[in-house]
Specification:
The structure holds 2 protein chains of 2 kinds. By secondary structure, chain A is mainly α. Chain A has one domain (2-511). Chain A has 19 helices and 2 strands. Chain B is mainly α. Helices cover 75% and strands 0% of the residues of chain B. Chain B has helices at residues 4-10, 15-33, 40-56, 74-95, 105-124, 128-146, 153-184, 189-196, 203-220, 228-235, 238-262, 270-292, 298-318, 322-354, 365-368, 370-383, 390-407, 413-442, 457-475, 478-487. Classes of the chains: A mainly alpha, B mainly alpha.
């Protein structure tokens, strides 16, 4: 009897723990003396480990459920600010579940990779890192628009500092650009949320920020013509700006190369691995279900922008001389696939988009870690400065080949599954755009092979004769991500099983509003 | 007629301001006779704390008091608590403010305490004459306080500019009162309201409204009546700058709410109101924010920022929806009280350390004093309206008011959506200059010979109080929101 109650309490607080554990870790760090750098860093890693363990548990349990829908045993809701009808409501389903898991894994790897960076101003770094982790977890589990917004903004501040204090030479510019850009997006998002809040009343005429209730109300109101397509169009646009800046969709991507390049390696990993997914997640979770007619109207535009991002991002990557900038632009290109799948609004498209979010999270994190490995030793990221490292650094070469091929979409690795699903989902809907986007694949292959060639092949530059291979700690950060890439490439069903019911439900809902 | 005993009975509603008036006079007297300088601080603290406690007592009356001069309702009580609390923090801030000569402390505190009483009277006046008198009471004490650093040219200049500007705006306001009197035949707000009941808007009432807005707009620092702000804020002793930016501004908003909610709802004036106040509010925040971007002096920067903040609050007035407008304005002011005073506490500490108040003086503050740097950061973040801090709850309410007005199809609703967009754009501009300060504190390194700032007990107390309440309003807003909605003016 008691056990059942404890279990229930654990289930109800599990999703809260996901963000509360990092916060707690941050508080512990604040209490530690400034000089105890070892203890501070270990606290950061242990808190990330705890969050990662919890998120893994969530993912495994979701996989074991017959149907990973939102009304599972972790759904928890309690009034926070009754005066404005704000609930503290959290839950996971097939859409947020994989993202929670991704956040846990990528953050733990980033925490381990922070070991050297965090030596400088350790206390501040580790606290901010954990706050960032808390913000990310909170954003993915929040089911109340108000709470979602709070977590979304909470994430901004640590990121600003992490880029601005521990970043590269242009860090101050990159940090403020990132901050203002994202803030601009989120204030418009807030206006969109407020329109939804005041416009979509519950059947008993009360107001709510609860996403699930709002989705239901929005769908009913749309059916009965109470929520005009014109208003939905603008609401979707207002929220979409916030999400699109985070993704980032072309033409809102200009903050990304600056932020990614200037950020220290572990923070670039988090930026590319997790933060970008918030934008696409916003479309899945809020944009589509809450403004179905708006989404319907915007879909073709999103598809077109996505294809531009795929091709433009790939071309930009091709032109880069800076290794990190190349990886940054490749993110613009790869996130375009998610948006294309999203725009297609077919089961395959949405599944592929979600799969790409996870796959890109793992792959691009590896890429940034690999850039970091090289930069830590050589102190340059100039692609033309290297050559012939393939024979000298076998372990590094192995990891790099694997990650780059995964990024290119080689069959057998996670990237391929995602891209294939996106294409097969988008083809019936936007045939010409999909054909165009396949050009992007070719350019991707070009820049990836060209980069491998510049770094690993060719004559060896004697300047690097004392470069050492990957250290144990670096291998530790790369291995789980690479393993996930391989495993999901061979057994995509592991992830798809979690996603499937939620995606199917979303497609069913949206199909009622298709023209 | 009201008998003497009844008047005496009514006195109990005036306990907080009575206490402050007595305390002010006692302090002045003490200063004259005993000359004890710093020992007067505890007295002033006791007086402000006592006034806050008295104001918290649930003594309210919906009946007009003192021949209809005053209405000591819940709304007035809210601003009494507000002003006493602000006064308490300002006294704490003054204790360690170095440039203030010890021999003037008595006069300084005496006038400050009287100014607090003036805010309370302003918030409860229901008669045009009484409003004018309390407004002048507040203004005159403020002029003196601004010019208190007698040997400082800037302070003197500030006081003179403030005075000239104030005199002009008040004169215009008085003209507005006269027009209102002419149109309605009475000076009592309820009687004016009755005279206007169901009457069409006339050019006369429009003009009266605009002229009155000039006087109140001067108090809250609304564009185009804001020109005194940067100079007065820079020249005044820093605690007084803090007082002006919070206390005096809140007084202006209190009387603005009362006059426009009691007098004008009878008139069909909404579209005019929307256009005039809305556009002025947008100008106010835009001018404040854009000019703040290029300021290097912290007090000037916070001055322009306070102009912008007044613009945000004014947007709350655009939608004349009683259930929403008042709580929006009142909760914003409450959050603003703590975050703005907190920021000024840090400015005082910096000025005590380096003798200046430039952004450069904050360079590397995070290394010299992490506590100060992080506190300042929290206050700035709250001013920028980032969740989960107090300023964000206020800003949320303003946004919500506008969006609600738009969706309910009030006349000129589309305009409200544009106001919301303007507010959104302004939030981003504001973040830019607040983060200039953050950048100096965290990204830059301290210059050589920059001392570690020392924070004494009183300033530390003020800092912690502001910090805790800035967090509290943001993280657990429910009790504050309940309180605010209970204290709002009764709907008409």
């Amino acid at each position: 009897m008691l056990d059942a109650r404890i279990l229930q309490a654990f289930d109800q607080s599990l999703l809260t723990l996901l963000w509360a554990v990092p916060v707690l870790g941050g508080i512990i760090i604040l209490l530690l003396p400034r000089e105890a750098r070892g203890a501070i860093k270990w606290t950061m890693i242990l808190a990330s480990l705890a969050a990662c363990a919890l998120s893994t548990y969530v993912a495994v349990e979701l996989w074991r459920m017959p149907q990973a829908t939102i009304d599972n045993r972790w759904l928890f809701s309690v009034a926070w600010i009754p005066a404005v009808n704000v609930l503290y409501k959290v839950g996971v389903d097939g859409i947020s579940g994989p993202m929670v898991f991704l956040t846990g894994v990528v953050s733990l790897m980033a925490a381990i990779a922070s070991w050297n960076v965090a030596d400088q101003r350790a206390k501040e770094y580790c606290t901010l890192f954990l706050l960032l982790l808390a913000g990310m977890m909170g954003t993915f589990v929040a089911l109340d628009l108000f709470v979602f917004y709070v977590f979304w903004e909470v994430m901004l501040v640590p990121m600003y500092f992490l880029i601005g204090i521990w970043g590269g030479p242009q860090r101050e510019y990159a940090a403020i650009k990132f901050f203002l850009y994202t803030l601009a997006g989120s204030v418009f998002m807030l206006i969109g949320f407020l329109v939804l809040y005041f416009n979509l009343r519950n059947p008993d005429n009360t107001l709510t920020f609860d996403m699930i209730a709002l989705a239901r109300n929005a769908q009913e109101a749309s059916m009965e013509n109470l929520f005009s397509p014109r208003l939905q169009f603008w609401v979707f646009a207002a929220m979409g700006v916030g999400f699109a800046i985070k993704v980032p969709m072309w033409p809102f991507h200009t903050w990304l190369p600056d932020a990614h390049v200037e950020a220290p390696t572990p923070i670039s990993v988090i930026l590319a691995g997790v933060l970008l997914k918030m934008g696409t997640y916003g479309f899945y979770r809020i944009g589509y279900p809450l403004t179905p007619l708006g989404a319907e109207a915007w879909r073709p535009i999103i598809a077109a922008l996505a294809v531009i991002a795929i091709i433009y991002g790939a071309y930009c990557a091709l032109a880069q001389q800076d290794f990190k900038k190349l990886v940054a632009y490749s993110s613009v290109s790869h996130m375009g696939f998610v948006m294309l799948g999203l725009a297609a609004l077919t089961v395959n498209g949405l599944n592929g988009g979600l799969f790409q979010m996870f796959a890109h999270g793992c792959i691009t994190s590896c890429l940034f870690l690999l850039v970091g490995v090289l930069y830590d030793r050589a102190h340059t990221r100039d692609l033309y400065a290297f050559g012939g490292l393939g024979t000298r650094l076998p372990k590094y070469t192995f990891c790099m080949m694997l990650a780059f091929f995964a990024s290119m979409g080689l069959p057998g690795l996670a990237g391929f599954v995602a891209e294939f699903m996106v294409f097969s989902g988008a083809m019936p809907v936007y045939m010409w755009l999909t054909c165009l986007s396949i050009i992007g694949i070719t350019i991707t292959a070009t820049y990836i092979l060209y980069t491998l060639q510049r770094i690993l092949l060719g004559p060896f530059n004697q300047r690097w004769s004392n470069l050492t291979d990957i250290s144990g700690r670096e291998a530790l950060t790369l291995a789980p991500l690479l393993a996930l890439t391989v495993v999901l490439g061979i057994f995509p069903g592991l992830l798809l099983k979690i996603q499937e019911p939620s995606v199917q439900a979303l497609v069913d809902t949206m199909s009622r509003f298709a023209k | 007629m009201v008998g003497a005993s009844e008047l005496w009975q009514q006195m109990r509603y005036l306990m907080p301001e009575g206490l402050l008036l007595c305390a002010g006079l006692v302090i002045l007297l003490f200063d004259l006779v005993v000359k004890k300088g710093r020992s007067l601080y505890p007295l002033a603290m006791l007086a402000t704390a006592g006034a806050a406690a008295l104001a918290l007592l649930p003594l309210e009356s919906s009946e007009p008091l003192f021949f209809g001069m005053i209405q000591s309702d819940a709304f007035a009580r809210y601003f009494k608590v507000f002003s006493a609390l602000a006064g308490f923090l300002v006294v704490l801030m003054s204790m360690d403010y170095k440039p203030l000569p010890a021999r003037f402390v008595g006069e300084y505190l005496g006038i400050l305490v009287l100014a607090l009483a003036a805010i309370m009277l302003l918030a409860e006046s229901t008669n045009l004459l009484m409003i004018f008198l309390s407004l002048e009471f507040l203004s005159l004490s403020s002029y003196i306080l601004v010019g208190f650093l007698r040997n400082d040219k800037k302070s003197k200049e500030a006081s003179l500019k403030y005075f000239l500007f104030g005199a002009m705006c008040t004169a215009v306001m008085l003209y507005g009162f006269a027009l209102l009197y002419g149109a309605s035949g009475s000076l009592d707000l309820p009687a004016i309201k009755a005279a206007f009941a169901n009457r069409q808007n006339t050019p006369l009432t429009c003009l009266a409204m605009l002229f009155i807005l000039a006087g109140f707009g001067f108090k809250v620092a609304m564009v185009p009546f804001h020109a005194w702000v940067p100079d007065a804020y820079e020249g005044a002793p820093t605690p007084i700058t803090a007082f002006l930016s919070v206390g005096s501004k809140a007084g202006g908003f209190a009387v603005l709410l009362r006059v426009f909610f009691t007098v004008f709802p009878g008139l069909d004036y909404h579209p005019y109101w929307l256009a005039v106040v809305g556009v002025l509010a947008v100008f106010t925040m835009t001018v404040g924010n854009v000019i703040a971007c290029s300021q290097d002096n912290l007090k000037r920067l916070l001055g322009y920022s306070s102009i912008a903040q007044a613009g945000y609050v004014l947007l709350g007035f655009v939608v004349m929806d009683g259930r929403f407008t008042q709580p929006a304005v009142m909760i914003y002011l409450l959050a603003y009280l703590f975050m703005n005073l907190g920021a000024f506490v840090v400015v005082i500490v910096i000025a005590n350390t380096t003798g200046q108040e430039e952004i450069d003086d904050l360079a590397g503050l995070s290394e010299r004093s992490p506590l100060l740097a992080w506190s300042m950061f929290i206050f700035l973040l709250s001013l920028a309206g980032v969740p989960p801090l107090g300023g964000w709850i206020g800003k949320y309410y303003i946004f919500a008011t506008l969006v609600k007005g738009y969706l309910e199809g009030l006349s000129g609703g589309n305009l409200m959506l544009w106001f919301a967009v303007a507010l959104a754009v302004n939030s981003v501009i504001a973040a830019y200059y607040y983060f200039r300060i953050v950048k100096a504190m965290f990204f830059e390194h301290a210059r050589e010979r920059m001392a570690r700032p020392v924070v004494g007990g009183p300033l530390l107390t003020a800092l912690y109080v502001s910090l805790i309440l800035t967090f509290a309003v943001g993280l657990w807003p429910q009790p504050f929101l309940n309180w605010v909605s209970r204290m709002a003016l009764p709907l008409l």
